[in-house]
């Protein structure tokens, strides 16, 4: 006897609308329809071989959901993931996933196993662990990621893994302007052939409708706000510590319990990457960054690190306190480059990170078991 199919996402979505937790949007309803269809196909995949010998269907195509910032992509992804009818599923931020892939590749190369190449071994291991991979905020900036994504995703899909991803950019705009982009083009082709492309064309940035709960963003040029920022940022004494990032240690100059404090140059001026920011988000539930400057194209590397930091802290439901030279949307002054688009996402997320809903989620995280970090002697 087959298990009962999971509730349709459309029913769950309308229930949330009725409860006043979200605002109904026609574009979101269309995206829900596509996700519902995929749920039905996943449910069909779970059914055992029919008694008269007919095999189950081939694995369904994945889904690539893209649209402007703050349109509800993550909310829809979370609803889909919760309803997905498989225990072998995983939802992760794309930065975290690729950091893990590179760590596995490094370990595989060091092991020197014979047989398939390291990337094939890593893909096979991932496919054994999960049948559904859900990525939030698929974005590619690193050439190391760009050069392996086509082979990695092709191997996962061939092994029957279904991939669902959200992104701010349509596939053709991924890694736009990136170095050696021709090496990345097979990945775009793979996405367009093996995933349904759905645009979420909602008309409103739903994050901007959330009320500000408390001041966590301070403008440096305002003397009164700058004074409040110093009082808030240095209310407690700090000590040196260090956290593990793979096999190395990242020194933190100022920490107090689960709070870490940085100047902008310390956290975005140095060549840190997603792995460092993921480790910070795991070890601390509150991060303070002071003196965020206006940036331009010449400082795009710092802007990119800042955007990655915001993305990872947002995904971890960490509390972020900032002092800056300008409001988030005006922190990057350039006319082109992928950073222009992505700073808009960071600004939208920083707006939501001031809201009561977000801070309630942060408060809930504070009651989770504390992550152990190494202390400096």
From TrEMBL:
<dbReference type="InterPro" id="IPR005654">
    <property type="entry name" value="ATPase_AFG1-like"/>
</dbReference>
<keyword id="KW-0547">Nucleotide-binding</keyword>
<keyword id="KW-0067">ATP-binding</keyword>
<dbReference type="GO" id="GO:0005737">
    <property type="term" value="C:cytoplasm"/>
</dbReference>
<dbReference type="GO" id="GO:0016887">
    <property type="term" value="F:ATP hydrolysis activity"/>
</dbReference>
<protein>
    <recommendedName>
        <fullName>Cell division protein ZapE</fullName>
    </recommendedName>
</protein>
<dbReference type="InterPro" id="IPR027417">
    <property type="entry name" value="P-loop_NTPase"/>
</dbReference>
<dbReference type="Pfam" id="PF03969">
    <property type="entry name" value="AFG1_ATPase"/>
</dbReference>
<dbReference type="GO" id="GO:0005524">
    <property type="term" value="F:ATP binding"/>
</dbReference>
